[in-house]
Amino acid sequence: MSAEPSLPITSPAPRFGVWLIGARGSVATTAIAGCAAVAAGLHPPTGMVTETAPFAASHLPALSSLVFGGHDTVDCPLPKRAEHLAEGGVLPHGLPAAVHAELVAADREIRPGGPPPGDTGRTQDEWIDVFAADIRDFVRRQDLAGAVVVNVASTEPAPADGSLPPSSLYAAAALRAGCPYVNFTPSTGLHHPALAGLAESFGLPYAGRDGKTGQTLLRSVLGPMFLQRALAVRAWSGTNLLGGGDGAALADPAAAAAKNAGKERVLADTLGTTPEGEVHIDDVPALGDWKTAWDHIAFDGFLGARMILQTTWQGCDSSLAAPLVLDLARLTVRAHQQGLTGPLSELGFYFKDPVGDGPSSLAEQYTQLRHFAERLRTDTPAPEAHR
């Protein structure tokens, strides 16, 4: 009697962790719910650059392979947070119920953040150890092939002394846990002098900082336009009206100053000079997760003709940021798989104040990003192909 032919043994597809700092915030909740919705085919991947044709063969981890967890100092469960966002029009009606299981699973992997203000119970190094242990336990518990840490927490003021602010504690913990790090905020993170060279010493890639989602995105397009058409910009002023957690955080003048530094740097880099004018940020709680950004640009034309360009950008910050967070997680995981280390300047397309050396014009940054996609394509494929 002949033996039955044996079926080939297949290994389970690898999964990759996305550990979010500020995991119960609006951006994180939108990213987690959106990833589940797109992976299930409930919604198209609008706003995700990594889902466009140039990235189709870059061997990025599948959206369905991403597993979420993180740190946060608040205790509102993700399903409840998603319901609030749906009530505010940030998430589609019915989506929180459709991806409830994924939200619950991610919420189980969120650990308490810190340190609380004025805490003296642990040293900074002990906090780093605690955070790093949380990340390592997440990777082991979920049997992950790797993980990336992404900071999407509210903006913090720049440190006034030599101590490490929370964002820097989380960044150091990511590296200590062996994970690449992305700073989507203007907070200090790895930019603290005490952490200089730390990422290189761990042999890990990192990217940041301060996601470019609205007003500065437009500035990185308009600035080169004025320069290339030889039009002299005399003044560039702006105003931001926003609510939600980001609005409350930026009501602190020190936090607003950290945010505005990136906006002003884009103009200086693209124009070659810093025009007159300032950016003002106003907290309007009634706006919730929606924001309005207004720019007033005074410029000179031929024979000194004085002209004005005004722009108004109205959008939902969480909806603009979430697809970029998913892009960055996938790109950074793939870069780590390929053994890349140090600052990923090729990801400057996503940031106001990108690490490493690179262009400031959005068009040039996009060209650089596409070259990066080709580099990932030509190297050894990852075990799991693009979704």
From TrEMBL:
It comes from the Bacteria. Residues 214-318 form the Myo-inositol-1-phosphate synthase GAPDH-like domain. InterPro entries: Myo-inos-1-P_Synthase (IPR002587), Myo-inos-1-P_Synthase_GAPDH (IPR013021), NAD(P)-bd_dom_sf (IPR036291). Pfam families: Inos-1-P_synth, NAD_binding_5. SUPFAM superfamilies: Glyceraldehyde-3-phosphate dehydrogenase-like, C-terminal domain (SSF55347), NAD(P)-binding Rossmann-fold domains (SSF51735). PANTHER family: MYO-INOSITOL-1 PHOSPHATE SYNTHASE. Belongs to the myo-inositol 1-phosphate synthase family. This is Inositol-3-phosphate synthase. It comes from Streptomyces edwardsiae.
